[in-house]
Amino acid sequence: MTRGLNIYLFALRNVKRKVVRSTLLVLAVAVVTATLFAATLFITSMQNALKIGTYRLGADILVVPEGNEQQAKSALLAGEPTSFYMSADTIEKVRAVEGVNKASPQLFIKPSSFTCCYNVDVFLIAFDPGTDFTVTPWLEKTLKKGLSDDEIITGREVPIVAGDSIPFFGTSFRVAGTMEPTGMKFFDQSVFMTMDAAYKMAEASKTKSMQPLNIDSSKISAVLVQVEEGYTPDRVSIRIEHDVSGVKALASDEVISTVRKQLRGLVKGVIIISAILWILALLMMGFAFSMIVNERLREFGLLRSIGAKRWHILRLILSEAMAISLTGGIIGLAAGSFILRSFKGILLQSMKLPYLFPSTEVLMELIVGIILLSLLTGFVSALLPAYSASRIDPYMAIRKGE
Questions:
Q1: Which residue, of 102, 194, 251, 378, has the greatest Cβ tally within 10 A?
Q2: Higher pLDDT residue, 204 or 294?
Q3: Please, what is the average pLDDT of the chain?
Q4: Which residues form the ABC3 transporter permease C-terminal domain (predicted)?
């Protein structure tokens, strides 16, 4: 019996014999895996972007003019171009606050037009090379040099390459390099230049641009702060707001925690929906295999009578269930990928959250996990019916199947 019968081939033939029923069971598994895969990959990509983007930002606190907190959060998380200004002497006041280790100014400029890249909302960000700890480390590591006043660095989503020349407000700049993707539009859709370059551009715009830029060296937009060891960002934020009038200090943890709260809500929703769908799939497949066992009692009895062991019957039914589950899992992965690709843009636009596709290793781990879950679904749903069929007496099985 064991030499003459290939259990797995026999199981596949049985699956093909009941096409409609097998298709419904495959679809049940596919719905579960598609939902779980798409949702998990989406959440993982947002968490990946937060991790990398927060590391690149390098700041514990973002100090902005009072009343512009929401604009600053939108700029940081969604990369929405914005412009707001405060006095440049704010930087020295912030540096004097207890607990501040490093402080560096930035200037935010929202371009009125950018003809070469009309599909991207480009955000101009000027930094101080002497004190910066966000862009300068990348320059030192990647370009091995500083940035001159006629050069810019672009984010990965800005559709231009190194060596191109681009005009802003009547001043032409050469692209010195393109940063690697972070998933945060604050970096990926931004153009970085030095503070001196931004002030010179603003001055030149009065004669070179149809839309002059009214900014001078007495203005900055924000101050990025790193706190000293032994101090918490929350504690230093309170001190900054107390000691420096007219500003709002946003701890990066506060900004990121808002996103994490949204993600926790999404995760709970995904777990609940997936659990419900998985239980329904288990019940559906368990009921189907109970019917299959009852319909095929005579077949199982005959197999036992010609030498099949109990574990042969058990393997046969479980193999059928696993074949159905594996097919459903593969279809679910393909369907989940299609769903995510189709609706990702809409979701990101409505939620205004960062997004960066995970590494190949993480993606493979997720795919393997989904396949294992689909196989587990088939195994669990068919285990009890398979065990019952394997325990029945051959003679009684033949009699009941007549």
A1: 378
A2: 204
A3: 83
A4: 271-394
pLDDT for position 1: 44
* Residue 381, both tokens: 């749903």
pLDDT grade, residue 174 (50/70/90)?
A: very high
Tell whether 269 and 237 lie within a shared domain. no
Is the same domain home to 309 and 364? yes
Q: Do 178 and 290 belong together in one domain?
A: no
pLDDT > 90 fraction of the chain, expressed in percent and rounded: 31
pLDDT at 71 over 50: yes
- Establish if 251 belongs to a structural domain: no
Number of domains within the chain: 2
Evaluate if pTM is beyond 0.70.
Answer: no
Structural domain harbouring 378? 7-51+259-401
